[in-house]
Automatic annotation (TrEMBL):
SMART domains: TPR (SM00028). Residues 10-125 form the Guanylate cyclase domain. One of its GO terms (molecular function) is adenylate cyclase activity. PANTHER family: ADENYLATE CYCLASE, TERMINAL-DIFFERENTIATION SPECIFIC-RELATED, PH-SENSITIVE ADENYLATE CYCLASE RV1264. This is Guanylate cyclase domain-containing protein. The lineage of its organism: Bacteria, Pseudomonadati, Pseudomonadota, Alphaproteobacteria, Hyphomicrobiales. InterPro entries: A/G_cyclase, Adenylyl/Guanylyl_Cyclase_3/4, Nucleotide_cyclase, TPR-like_helical_dom_sf, TPR_rpt. GO terms for biological process: cAMP biosynthetic process; intracellular signal transduction. It comes from Devosia insulae DS-56.
Length: 588
């Protein structure tokens, strides 16, 4: 068997100062700035200096060089360029990078490099002054007389997970006059959305060289979660500094990184089998919220990584959402921000009852009073008003549609690339009798941004039923159910599968799905309307009349005309069959 390819190379670790803070201020501006710096100052010059980037992590990168002198000289030139250009980042602060350089014995795996020396480079970099670089004592001695850079001796320094202190030397283009302690990062700013970090997974395989399996899994999960806009994901490079640490205090990580949630796990390889485990932990109390494991063959490693990433993303989304709702509930009413009000509204929206829906509208109205351009709040409020119409919870459809129309306009301008807001907007447009094709396009856009968004798959399912393609709707509902079987919307998926089955000409299946949904959510009244239709077309008029009476008990003023108006988003032949079923059940 061929031995792994190893080589001794200088490794440069670069990290953007305050990246999480900059992204929180303006994600788009920060990403554009980082890409511009990379294109103009790094990718154009590094090759000529004998260097090559082998890993990028959002807030930094790792590069190898064929010469110690070249690595230090190129890094110094880069820092001088950034310093002299005085590049401003979002919020007005100066854009700065930290750099660390070590000579590392690395393992080569394809286009990537692994080994403890790479971890050392990251940890040395974390002690660099903002805008400068740090190197080890051995590097400093090797450079003696070959390069004119005024390095300052920082003295023996303790590095994370390094048993012995390491003497490091620092340089800055503006000069350093005395040894400096590593800068304490400013406390993370208050976030208007929850934040999560995916820690390096433990390698339980018994072979150090297998750690790249675990690293690859973490990178895939981090990339997948980064598409979820419901929460902020800490970049991979920041999480990498915790690699290999035993007995990590989750609460301390929460304070260090300003995160509310941590994903941790392990990868165990035995022969040709791999087991990947992951769990979600809340950092304030260190409590476990969710955990799971996946087993598979080494030959299917990439599929395993994809499966675990999808599992983690689809499970974490509702898990964090429930935790955030609980956080908002515990806050005093006078301290609630717009985000908290949105979180408080969600259980009321999920309840599918007229009283709860009105409470959700009140909470979302308060949120919009605090932040008039809050796209998610506007989209959810429009959806809530749409429910008033679709479920016959109001007699004034025109007023609800006027209010919702203004909210749809606000949401359309401000949802940006938020999959949840796009899905809520799609829901609102469908229920208000708007352009269903455009609504499905919004749901599809949400899925382009986050392919594991269970609610977007559900909404896509409803849209295709309304458009007359029920089999495609069923496929979307099934995808939603697989992604998030414990989601609060699971019962609505089953109601959708009922309508899809009815649209496809299978009323008995429609009855089964509707009854299952109602057993999952006792107290629902409006699905009796669906059951009346399905029983009528199945030929059981007694059961149809009973279901209609149950529906009318909660909606005494309903009529065939009002239901037709409320459901005008259905394609004509489906709506005609639906109303025919109600008429057969006795509705006038």
């Amino acid at each position: 068997m061929a031995q792994p390819d190893r080589r001794l190379v200088p490794i440069v670790s670069l990290d953007i100062v305050g990246y999480s803070r900059l992204v929180e201020r303006s994600e788009r501006q920060t990403l554009r700035l980082v890409q511009r710096v990379y294109d103009r100052l790094i990718s154009r010059t590094i090759g000529a200096a004998g260097g090559k980037v082998f890993k990028t992590m959002g807030d930094g990168l790792l590069a190898e060089f064929n010469s110690v002198v070249a690595a230090v000289q190129w890094t110094a030139d880069l820092q001088r360029q950034i310093h002299e250009r005085k590049i401003h980042a979002p919020g007005g602060e100066m854009f700065q990078v930290r750099a660390g350089i070590v000579l590392a014995d690395v393992l080569v795996a394809g286009n990537d490099l692994y080994g403890s020396g790479i971890n050392l480079a990251v940890r040395v970099q974390s002690h660099s002054p903002a805008g400068g670089m740090c190197i080890t004592k051995w590097m400093y001695q090797y450079l003696d007389g070959t390069i004119e850079l005024p390095f300052v001796d920082m003295g023996p320094t303790e590095l994370k997970n390094i048993s012995k202190t390491v003497r490091i030397y620092a340089w800055h283009p503006a000069g350093l006059t005395r040894p400096q302690q590593p800068e304490s990062p400013p406390p993370p700013p208050p976030s208007n959305r929850p934040s999560v970090v995916v820690l390096p997974f433990d390698n339980l395989s018994g072979e150090a060289d297998q750690s790249y399996f675990a690293d690859a899994v973490v990178e895939e999960i981090t990339a997948t979660l980064s598409r979820v806009k419901d929460f902020f994901v800490i970049a991979r490079n920041s999480a990498f500094t915790y690699k290999g640490r035993a007995g990590i205090d989750i609460r301390q990580i929460g304070r260090d990184l300003g995160v509310r949630y941590v994903v941790e796990g392990s990868v165990r390889r035995v022969g040709e089998r791999v087991r990947i485990t992951a769990q979600l932990v809340e950092t304030e109390a260190g409590s476990h919220i969710w955990s799971n494991k996946i087993d598979g063959a080494v030959a299917d490693l990439f599929d395993l990584q994809d499966r675990m990433a999808a599992e983690v993303a689809s499970a974490i989304q509702p898990s964090i959402r429930r935790a955030e709702v609980e956080r908002a509930r515990k806050k005093r009413p006078e301290t609630l921000a717009a985000y908290d009000l949105v979180m408080r509204s969600l259980p009321h929206l999920w309840s599918h009852s007229p009283d709860d829906n009105r409470e959700a509208i009140a909470l979302l109205t308060r949120a919009l009073a605090l932040e008039p351009h809050y796209g998610l709040a506007a989209a959810l409020a429009a959806w809530a008003h749409g429910q008033q119409v679709a479920y016959n919870w109001t007699t004034d459809f025109a007023a609800e549609r006027r209010t919702a129309g203004a909210l749809v306009e606000t949401a359309s301008q401000h949802v940006a690339d938020d999959p949840t807001a796009l899905t809520a907007l799609a829901s609102a447009m469908m229920m208000l009798g708007g352009d269903v094709r455009q609504a499905v396009a919004f749901a599809d856009r949400a899925l382009e941004l986050d392919p594991n968004h269970a609610w977007a798959w559900m909404r896509r399912g409803w849209g295709h039923v309304y458009l007359g393609t029920p089999e495609e709707g069923l496929a979307a509902f099934e995808r939603s159910a697989r992604l998030s079987p414990m989601d609060p919307f699971a019962f609505n998926v089953h109601l959708g599968m009922g309508l899809a089955s009815f649209a496809a000409g299978r009323p008995q299946q429609a009855i089964d799905w509707a009854q299952r949904a109602m057993s999952e959510r006792p107290g629902l009244t409006w699905p009796h309307r669906d059951l009346a239709v399905y029983f009528a077309h199945h030929g059981d008029l007694a059961a149809a009349r009973d279901a209609l009476q149950r529906f009318q008990h909660a909606h005494p003023d309903v009529s065939l005309a009002s239901i037709g108006d409320g459901l005008r988003f259905m394609y004509p032949s489906l709506l005609a069959r639906y109303l025919q079923g109600l008429q057969l059940a006795g509705l006038q």
